[in-house]
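Lecture notes, continued. The same structure-token format from the folding unit now serves as the input rather than the output. Read the line below as a description of shape only.
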């Protein structure tokens, strides 16, 4: 039913697989957000464009979309083009591949009362491809080890394994606003083994509110992330260090702190946001009070200000060239590249320390010297 969500849903599976009791803690409807509605609008446009490209008679939903803009149009065009490329590739080995768009899937074979919707599934001889469109900009999503994608793949396999001889499952994340196309492949046997060894046991614990709480990156969208004691214990392990001069710490200690730094900062900010919300509602935290924050002066009527300054003989406006991002949105990516491609440069970014799992190539000492000399 539209608007309903399974408690043990694929989208939240990373959290409840790692932390089974969190499933019941997060049960209940979400209030929604601007970002969620943007994603919903983008998915509706994706569905329309792919179905139209496949030859179906479908209604254009553009006029009904709350957050439609040029960027959404371009991203959904790119997605449609990508999907059709996958369909064409499937036709090279299969005369008539099956293509399903916004296909509802049932996972109750492995997870009780669980269901979801896959953006696109392409079934050909021997290979099934599951494609998921991500409109989000904040978090880079990888296909490798992605439990949401694996659940979609299982649901699709459940539909078609009796009709097709599927040996390989290909899972693709298409995230255009991050220039990210991430692909992972597993054999059918590997996928079913993961379901038996990981998914089914975790789902059984989560359904009953059993198992152990566990903190990690999966806490990001948890409703109790600000008050969870396990997350506090996880992050407060850093407090065992006095944070003295860095060279008094061993290298492995510094590595541990770096690995936890972003998570620790995020946790602190979650606590601050939660405490402020509670304090505004009347809760008293010993040693703290709610005060009016700093603010900047602003005009009450910009038109009146402009008229008054102009009448006084001054020019109240400043002229400033749009930034690259704003100009791209104004012109559209294709026209931007045609008009301004030769006038754009991308200087080297500043050195940044990241985990080894980051896909960017590591800098060498010579790279660092070159950057320093160019400053």
């Amino acid at each position: 039913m539209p608007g309903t969500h399974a408690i043990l849903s694929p989208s939240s599976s990373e959290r409840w697989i790692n932390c089974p009791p969190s499933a019941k803690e997060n049960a209940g409807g979400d209030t929604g957000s601007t970002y969620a509605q943007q994603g919903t609008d983008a998915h509706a446009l994706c569905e329309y464009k792919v179905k139209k490209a496949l030859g179906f008679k479908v209604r254009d939903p553009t006029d009904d979309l709350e957050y439609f803009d040029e960027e959404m149009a371009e991203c959904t065009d790119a997605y449609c083009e990508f999907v059709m490329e996958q369909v064409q590739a499937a036709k090279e080995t299969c005369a008539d591949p099956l293509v399903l768009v916004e296909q509802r899937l049932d996972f109750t074979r492995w997870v009780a009362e669980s269901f979801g919707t896959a953006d696109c599934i392409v079934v050909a001889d021997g290979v099934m491809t599951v494609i998921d469109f991500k409109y989000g900009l904040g978090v880079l999503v990888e296909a490798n080890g992605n439990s949401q994608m694996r659940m979609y793949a299982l649901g699709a396999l459940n539909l078609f394994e009796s009709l097709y001889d599927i040996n390989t499952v290909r899972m693709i994340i298409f995230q255009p606003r991050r220039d990210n196309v991430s692909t992972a492949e597993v054999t059918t046997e590997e996928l079913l083994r993961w379901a038996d060894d990981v998914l089914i046991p975790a789902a059984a614990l989560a359904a009953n509110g059993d198992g152990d709480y566990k903190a990690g990156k999966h806490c990001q969208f948890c409703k109790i992330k600000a008050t969870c004691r396990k997350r506090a214990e996880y992050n407060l392990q850093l407090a065992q260090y006095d944070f003295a001069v860095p060279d008094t710490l061993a290298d492995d200690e510094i590595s541990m702190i770096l690995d936890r730094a972003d998570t620790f900062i995020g946790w602190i900010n979650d606590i601050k946001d939660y405490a402020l919300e509670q304090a505004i509602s009347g809760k008293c935290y010993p040693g703290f009070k709610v005060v009016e924050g700093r603010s900047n002066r602003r005009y009450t009527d910009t038109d009146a200000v402009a008229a008054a300054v102009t009448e006084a003989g001054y020019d109240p406006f400043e002229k400033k060239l749009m930034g690259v991002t704003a100009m791209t949105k104004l012109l559209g990516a294709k026209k931007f590249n045609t008009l301004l491609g030769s006038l754009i440069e991308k200087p080297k970014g500043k050195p940044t320390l990241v985990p080894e799992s980051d896909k960017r190539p590591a800098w060498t000492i010579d790279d660092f010297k070159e950057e320093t000399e160019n400053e």
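Point for the exam: The longest strand covers residues 166-175.
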